[in-house]
Specification:
138 residues, mainly alpha, two-stranded antiparallel ribbon, binds iron/sulfur cluster
Length: 138
């Protein structure tokens, strides 16, 4: 869960949707604060994330889109697709917006849903993904 401010929002950037809504790629979360994977790779929680990338419809995670830019040797050794898929898992992509905007309160039902999604990922898959990126669980 990531607390947000509104600084750094480009004019054409979509507004952040409500907590728990489908992600619209507004990118506010990654401008404000890094996720745990980003923190492990870049050594800070302070946004904007170095892997925050502009896309045709907003912003995306560079570790998913272009992992070779951030860990070229690892992408060469493990494969770009494998690293990208591992990043998808580790950043919780597809679960919806788990970031909180200024003054926004988390919906407990959505928080419970996020926990269920995380639990369903499977510890073995999570461990494999972490090993692929060389983070945690070593
Ligand atoms: S998770 Fe939320 S804040 Fe982050 S890009 Fe998606 S919609 Fe925007
Ligand atoms: S690693 Fe990806 S998802 Fe995590 S903060 Fe950086 S750009 Fe966002």
């Amino acid at each position: 869960m990531i607390a947000l401010d509104d600084t750094g929002t480009a004019p054409a950037t979509p507004e952040k949707p409500a907590y728990g809504s489908p992600c619209n790629n507004c990118g506010q979360c990654c401008r404000s604060e890094l996720c745990p994977l980003g923190n492990e790779l870049f050594g800070t929680w302070a946004g904007p994330c170095p892997a925050h990338e502009r896309t045709a419809d907003g912003f995306g995670c560079g570790l998913v889109l272009n992992p070779q830019r951030y860990r070229p040797a690892r992408a060469m050794a493990r494969g770009r697709t494998a690293l990208s898929q591992a990043a998808v898992l580790l950043i919780g992509s597809g679960a919806g917006c788990d970031a909180l905007g200024e003054g926004e309160r988390p919906d407990p039902a959505e928080t419970a849903r996020f926990k269920t999604v995380m639990a369903a990922m499977g510890p073995r898959e999570i461990r494999r993904a972490k090993i692929a990126w060389g983070v945690g669980g070593r």
